[in-house]
Amino acid sequence: MQTLTLRCTLKPTPEQAAALEATARRFAEGCNHALRVAKEHGEFRRFKLHRLVYRDLRAMGLSANLAVQAIARVGRKKGSRARFYQPTSCAFDQRTLSLRGEDETVSLSTVRGRLRIPLKLGNYQRGLLARARGVQGGVLTQGPRGKWYINLVLRIETPTPPGGGGTIVGLDMGQKTLAMLSSGVRFSGGPLKGVRLRYLKKRAEVRSRLDRPSQRTRGVKRLWERLTRREARFVSHALHALAKRIVDGLEPGDTLAVEDLTHLRGRTARRGSTERHLHHLWPYAKLRSLLGYKAALRGVRVVAVDPRHTSQGCPRCGHTARENRRSQALFRCTACGFQHNAGWVAAYNVALRARGCSPVPQGIVARRAGSTGEGRCKPARILRVSSVHRLLSESPNQNALAFG
Can you give the residue ranges of the Cas12f1-like TNB domain (predicted)? Predict the structure, then answer.
């Protein structure tokens, strides 16, 4: 069982939209009042703050549940770091929000009574709502163009992965190659990198205007926020699409092995302002999070392994040395002469570590590569164990044969 957030578009009438706006405004006023009291008393613990401001929020016109949600927002979000709450969202729980699937409407408790508002759903939303075991609540939000959305918190039952017989697929993440699978499938990171660099250049121009008091206008500030949100939406969409393609290529019962890149930025460094910028902003953790929940919905296991020297170890003889990594894309073992794409070597070593053994185990995806040098990805196929061991034992001059 896991909890997911599903965003749905609301289609309120003008009267309902006015009620939603009034509710969001009143909710923000309650949050700001709770924030002022919390700062005055130096008390951000939820239950202590509840005793201080609950009656005030009720007197302001908030219902009991909305008052509790306002107090929880100030305490849970660590209101000591907040300055002001904008009237653009409102939190609901199970008592103030209910869903009716027959006519695709949602019932919300507002300052003007209970309202039933139609939802605009697509096939993706309908599929998740059909699988949901329950609705835990939601957050009402207003977009920059005045549209209203409801982010429903759903409890989804995940299937239990079938035991035995699954395939282990290794995944190597990077910047030039966003994702490389041990099956030979490669996802380029060039488009994402190019977009992030373009936004970096645009924000640098806007930043130079913000640093000058004479040009620090409200329009320039809005432009800065708009560029930031636009880049965040693009990155989020790209990662969702990538994670979906990776998971859809697996079968229930398979295992996806990923690198444990926790605290990566504290252990590594990059030269140059551009490389440091990309290194600190590259979304490894977000991609892993998306892979985790999408794989769970499909019945695929996700395991994390130690990432050290995965692109420097030879999958044929086991020799590990920095000299094996001849370039960003080329791996050539200095001991046995094995040569292949460095990203694929890293992905295959990740799959081996997930299995916990050095020889090639059954169920690891393998392939033949038809080129030397950097190696171009071809359609993956599964080789038998005997075939893979034969490739491992071949002489070093037969580098055109590789497994993946």
Answer: 284-350
Reduced to 3 states (helix: H, G, I; strand: E, B; else coil), residue 193 is helix
pLDDT digits (tens, 9 = 90+) for 141-163: 998 788 999 999 999 888 887 77
Any idea of the CA torsion for 240, 246, 251, 255, to the nearest 10 degrees? -100
Q: Which two tokens stand for residue 197?
A: 């660099």
Summarised one tens digit per residue, pLDDT across range 162-178 is: 776 678 899 988 777 88
Other Cβ atoms closer than 10 A to 15: 10
Topology classification of domain 161-188+237-404: Nucleotidyltransferase; domain 5 (3.30.420)
pLDDT in tens, 265-308: 555 556 566 666 666 667 778 888 899 889 988 889 888 888 88
Q: Could you tell me which of 100, 148, 96, 138 has the C-alpha nearest to residue 4? A: 138
For the chain, domain boundaries = 2-156, 161-188+237-404
- Verdict on whether the full-model pTM lies above 0.85: no
